[in-house]
Amino acid sequence: MSTDSLNNSNEVVATDDDASDLDDLESSVDERTLVVLQFLANFPAETIAWFVEKLTDPIAKGGAELDVRFIKDNKKQRQIYAVGASVKRLLEGAERMGLKKRFQDDTMRDFILCNIHLYQGSNDLDKFLSTREKQQIIMHEIESVRFKMPEGSSEISVKGFLPGLPKLFKDQVIFSACRAKNLLTYFPLHDKRDLRKLIRNWVRSFWSFQPLDDIHDYFGDSITIYFAFLGFYTTFLLPPAILGVFFYLLSFFISYNIIGFFCIFNIIWSSIFLVLWKRESSKLAYKWGSINHSRFDEPRPELWSEEICTNPVTGKFEPFCDYKSKYVKFYTISLPIIIVCLIVSLFVGITYFWVEDSIRNWAFSDLNKVDLHSGDYQSMTLPWDAYVISVMVTIVYGMAIYGLDIGYRYLAVRLNNYENHRLQSSYENFLIAKLVVFNFVNYFCNLFYIAFVLRDYNLLQKNLATLLITWQIIQQAQETVVPYFTYKYKKYRVLGKFSSGSHINLCKKDNDETINKSGGAANDDDDDLKIAENKYQIEKDATKIDYPFGYVFLFSACYPTSALWAFLNNLTEIRTDAFKLVLIHKRPFSRQADGIGSWLLAFELMGIVAVITNCTLVAINDDVLHYFYSVGYSDVGIFVLFVMIEHLLLFVKATISLLVPALPEDIKTNLARIDYEAQLAWTDKTKKLLGDLDPTMKKNQ
């Protein structure tokens, strides 16, 4: 490793006094500061020393065997440590965590250190593991350090073992438990070289396709899958957007009932989209080695309990999770609170309709009082002043439901934490269910009321357009304007305009020799500690895709141009999310994922509801009813006809899902071949083990 390479990215720059130390470091340690560990302010020094000892102790003694260096912050006196590891230690960690690397036959396989020569890129060990993989390994090793009871203790849990420590159980993951209590945090640092490449090829390249491989190399599976889905969804919105504008313009010259054909297209198109996305996500997951990723699910670090139990699979101690208690909390606390939130949302909607009714009565005050619920006003056009007021009220209502969304999201997270889920998958599923149910009522309940109770297409079109555009403007302002000025402000501070003379020193753990890093724009560690102070939450961004999908496909019969607005919104959403992720937030640790998880189920359920809503909207349309009355259909006949059409469309959706497999045939074949080779290897290993035992058994006999 050359000295020049140390001047880039997050590497340490050494003074002449530290030349000998740096030579030793180069021979055994990856100089890159991979992960930063930060403790709570005024955390006891004795306890910090214990944490550092756990990180540096050999694995045989229950440690992580990592390289830890103190980062001296003269400005804020923060307790920050830089964590790295030797190349050999990283390779051992890659095997321990089951990291997948590309094999010679171009398949992704579990890394085995003794067979490293069979993997692509193994001729250069310094570059064999990417920075993201090294950071993922460091995180795995940190979270593999478990609590061992003090000598002489007969208990299986201990509280206050050291100052500032929470109650710890035997074999509990120490750092995750303390992180859940907000006693410490650890996060990976950005790599400025790769970051500049992403800024150039991703954030600033508005009209080009996303560099998914580069994104994956830097951020990992879960984030790349999200952006891949967003790009795939945006591409599939283009045909409905074009056809929607075409049918909308055509409706001015031809009877409006032709929009039924557009509804059928949208329903089938949404089914094709979801099926093809399953195949696309399978291809990406196979390419990146995350398909069918399976490991034993450890309990969530946030899981808390006054009791502990022995895991029947691993035999390890872990906090006891009372499933009855979880469901009792959900049905007695969470569910009533959710119902109250739904009632509040409905009350806001009722208030909006009351104001809308008052505006119409005021507008038609010269006539007999027109009741909003009578339907007599549907053929009337509001005066321009009343129409402007009505639009403004709808905008305020849109802002109100957006505010309810933000508040409820915070409440849903608190309720989910209170329910104390054992597994991360269960936690995410319950959270997504809460968000989907509330937001469906919050965003779409008033539209269903207008469509199926009032049956006012003009009011429905106005509300759809106003709410969709208002929501997009608010969330884009929140996504672009606020992060942009936040970034500029923090960058201004890093450059020394507000805090001149600040600097950070990286110190060796056991002496006073320092590896100095002066402040300024080139100070990469300082950049990360000062700019990237916010944690990126992919779940928050994922919720923003759900609403436009509903606006586009639930009410195609009434507002065909909604696909155009959703398409334009997604174009900017991709770049604004990329901007936040690259320039605003902390770099997240890589997480394995082979799809968008429970959100796919939410989209599929919404697709089924879209069949029902669109068939009903077309069936109750006045032009459609007049046509069927004119050809001799009765109300019962029209009802039966559209129920049959609705069932036929549901059958078509199910048929598409069955005919198009989610897993391509070539991927199935490759996975089967890998499983077969693994079975052969296990058989050979078992035979060899039995062969070694056979002479011993005969001797004992």
Automatic annotation (TrEMBL):
Q: Which UniProt keywords apply?
A: Membrane, Transmembrane, Transmembrane helix
The question of whether Hydrolase is a record keyword is answered with no
Compositional bias ranges of the Acidic residues kind: 14-23
Q: Which GO terms describe its molecular function?
A: chloride channel activity
Pfam (any one) = Anoctamin
Q: Which InterPro entries match?
A: Anoctamin, Anoctamin_TM
Q: Which domain of life is it from?
A: Eukaryota
Q: Where is the composition biased (Polar residues)?
A: 1-11
Q: Where is this region: Disordered?
A: 1-23
One GO biological process term: chloride transmembrane transport
Q: Where in the cell is it found?
A: Membrane
Residues spanning the membrane:
225-250, 256-277, 333-355, 386-411, 431-454, 549-568, 596-620
Cellular component GO terms, alphabetical: plasma membrane
Bilayer topology term: Multi-pass membrane protein
- Domain annotation Anoctamin transmembrane: ranges: 215-673
| Recorded family membership | Belongs to the anoctamin family.
User: What is this protein's record name?
Assistant: Anoctamin
Lineage of the species this protein comes from = Eukaryota, Metazoa, Spiralia, Lophotrochozoa, Annelida
Gene of this entry = 20212085
